[in-house]
Amino acid sequence: MRTVGSLLSRLRAHPAVVGAGLVVVMLLAGFVGWRLTGGGEYVAPTPSTAPVVRADTDAARASLDELVTGVREGAEPKGEDPASVAVRNAHAIGIEDVTAEYVAESGHVDSDGSWSADVEMSWRGPGDPALTEELRVGFDGDGAITGFSAVRGTRMPLWLSGPVEVRRSGSTLVVVQASAEVADRYAELAATAVAEVREVVEWDDPRLVLEVPASGLDSALGVQQGTYTAVAAVTATVDGSTRPGTPLHVWVNQGVIGDLEAPGAQVVITHEATHAATDAPANAHRPMWLVEGFADHVALRDTKLPLSRTAGQILAQVREDGPPDHLPGKTEFNTRSEHFGAEYEAAWLACEVLADAGGEEALVDLYEATGRGIGLEKALQASFGFGEDELTARWRSRLSESAR
């Protein structure tokens, strides 16, 4: 049986007829297609007469204006649609100075007229600077808002993410996507954390803000999915900058901390509150082991838990491989590290070595001195009378002894 393939092979064998042969092949291919569809007279396809559905951008802009007006005027909406929920959240939290500028459609318009668009939104939380993010906003065929989501690389604000419970005191603000009971728990953890931190460091005007998303921290912080899957909480500037003095919030991972018993959960929140009180995320002077170890010193100073609970991971590593040869640095403090968690325990024990050697006040002096830019070696000598080499030796001995 002769096929189009055999004809092609023959044409390739005779270059002189390739040009004409290609025309023959195309015609033959068309003929085969015509035969396979049943023959008959060829009829050109009829152009589609379906109406083109266009986005009602005027209605969308009106919905955004209504959202902004609702937040600014303070009227309490009664609906459960995303815009009404956002307005209620804003009132409860104290969000102000909201703006929403329609930028452009994102993707196609569905047959029912719904679509999404990029919208530049700005707002200001209590005690925070004005924040601006480009967000993805969904609209139905009538231009009503159907939801909010983050554009890749931007932070998704909690007040636009769904219903929240809000708890506030003179020194704390807690925003939780969970039940009232869960919100009460976090409010208690926050209040205790402030009190525990103030026992160690000066925090004259304490302000601790907890944000607790319903699921994970990645979207709330605008990072790649999976970055903070195993992290219980993160303290960061509200705008993602590293400018000293920029207000800090603590983002809490319910999927991790929710499984902890009360003492463990309190350690996490007090640890993060220490970062907030000392402006740790925006201070690039202190070595990482001191930042994390000091925060754990504050969080664990009154705990009665055994070392098997507070340093179990690092001690297991020491039993297997011996003590590390250097204090943990930025490379070790990696959220995707195979031994994530052991580094924090190692850093904590380094700070405990210092506290045992010179007392808690000397440890606080070291922390504050390095925060002012004084080099670690000089600060260690001033507070303890020995340098980093001696500290490392004492720390390695402590690890080895504790691992027995």
Keywords, separated by commas or semicolons:
4 domains, Peptidase MA-like domain-containing protein, transmembrane helix, single chain, 9 strands, transmembrane, five-stranded mixed sheet, Zincin-like, 15 helices, alpha+beta, elongated, four-stranded antiparallel sheet, about 400 residues, Nuclear Transport Factor 2, Chain: A
Report what the structure shows:
There is one protein chain. The chain is α+β, with helices and mostly antiparallel strands. It has 15 helices and 9 strands. The strands form 2 sheets. The protein has a 5-stranded mixed β-sheet with strand order 5-6-7-9-8, with helices on both faces. It has a 4-stranded antiparallel β-sheet with strand order 1-2-3-4, with helices on one face. α1 runs antiparallel to α2, α5 crosses α8 and α9 packs across α12 (342-358). The longest helix has 19 residues, at 18-36. Keywords: Membrane, Transmembrane, Transmembrane helix. The chain crosses the membrane at residues 12-34. This is Peptidase MA-like domain-containing protein.
